[in-house]
Amino acid sequence: MNYETLVPVTGIIQNISQSPGNCCHQTITISTPNGINHFMLSPSTTVVDSTLLRSGMPVAAFYDSSLPVPLIYPPQFQAELITPLRNDETVMLNFFRRNLTARDNSLRLNLDRSTRILTLNGQRYSCPPGGNFLLVYYSVTTRSIPPQTTPRKIIVLCNDR
């Protein structure tokens, strides 16, 4: 998967419905401060921690911005990755250099003993996480440039090269 082109939409799940005629596909309606978005879930959509999605759950749904999107309202995207969030939690997907600074200098990570570092399939990651695309879960940052945070959890998105 090309993580560089994934774009997040963060909001609250309002509705989950089966796609007509295909029980393996679902449509999830997510309410954001900017309006409603529909996400199509297929068997290839990754749901972090294999969480059972439900109405009222805060989530971040990532879609591939390099793929065409139908020009309809509300927007409808194919979900590539969905992750549940805690209240007041932010998630960022970015490439982090070995010094744990995001490629675009938008965030710097300070690891703590309590920071959980895992792979996408939920296994413990025991190597230094820098030099990879990381899915970072955090709640507060400093006002420095770049902002710094101690994340609650990091998911290392390993490349299968």
Quickly list its features.
mainly beta; globular; single chain; 161 residues
N/C terminus separation: 11 Å
Q: What order do the strands of the largest sheet run in, or round the barrel if closed? A: 1-2-3-6-5
Number of β-strand runs: 12
Strand content of the residues, in percent? over 45%
Count of DSSP-assigned helices: 0
Describe the structure concisely:
This protein is mostly beta strands and 161 residues long. The chain has strands at residues 6-19, 22-32, 35-41, 46-47, 58-64, 76-84, 90-96, 108-109, 116-119, 132-138, 148-149, 153-157.
List the helices and strands and how they pair.
Layout: E1 6-19, E2 22-32, E3 35-41, E4 46-47, E5 58-64, E6 76-84, E7 90-96, E8 108-109, E9 116-119, E10 132-138, E11 148-149, E12 153-157
Describe the structure.
- This protein is mostly beta strands and 161 residues long.
- It has strands at 6-19, 22-32, 35-41, 46-47, 58-64, 76-84, 90-96, 108-109, 116-119, 132-138, 148-149, 153-157.
- It has a five-stranded mixed beta barrel with strand order 1-2-3-6-5.
- Strand 1 and strand 2 form a beta hairpin.
- The N and C termini lie close together (11 Å).
